[in-house]
Amino acid sequence: MTEFTAEHTPAEVVKVFPKASDLFKQRRIDFCCGGDRPLGEVFKERNIDEVAVMDELNHSFQDWQKEDHEVVDLDTKPLSELIDHIVHSHHAYLYEELPALGKFVSKIFRVHGKNHPHLKELHRLYNDFKVDMEEHTVNEEENVFPLIKEYEHNPNEELLERIKTANGGLEDDHDASGNILKHIREITNGFQPPRDACNSYRITYARLAELESDTFQHIHLENHVLFKRL
């Protein structure tokens, strides 16, 4: 591919050009849960300058290609390799980060909640997200991913139906978790700490931004690559 058009979806773009996720996050363009809509529709709905965004996207893509990056075709990568990457990269990150970051969220709520009332809502939203993602990752690793690996070696309709049943509401879970992160971004002013923020406050916001970025990549891989191939 040499150029993207407004007919491409954000998910298609990120599959080919992973760095596009940075541009989409800056422009508040969903490339994970709602990433299956053509960019042109998103531009019209959000009143975004199509020419400016597509120019920036394609110029960035051309520069990226000149750096001789390897373009990985995720649609041909073995399913088991995709699953192992998701587990060892994204799931492992969540297992380590969610409890650690939760302590920071609780601390700034306790210390600064009186002067910054939105921290109460942040505390509630974060803990909802934490519980949802912990349950979600366990369900995938114990019920869904083993079936997909089995299907890769022994594809049959019966096993595919079992996967669909086990998969159940996983994509709905993704939507719910994505919406929580979008809400967190809104109430934290795009993860911009206030002027009087202490170091803990600033660290919390920086780590929340990183959590959002990793989770959106995680959801994108599952929704638009792994699950779609089934």
UniProtKB/TrEMBL annotation:
Residue ranges of domain Hemerythrin-like in the record: 83-230
InterPro entries: Hemerythrin-like, RIC_family
Localisation: Cytoplasm
Chief location bin: cytoplasm
Keywords for this protein: Cytoplasm, Iron, Metal-binding
Pfam families for the chain: Hemerythrin, ScdA_N
GO molecular function per UniProt: metal ion binding
GO CC, any one term: cytoplasm
Full protein name: Regulator of cell morphogenesis and NO signaling
Native organism taxonomy: Bacteria, Bacillati, Bacillota, Bacilli, Bacillales
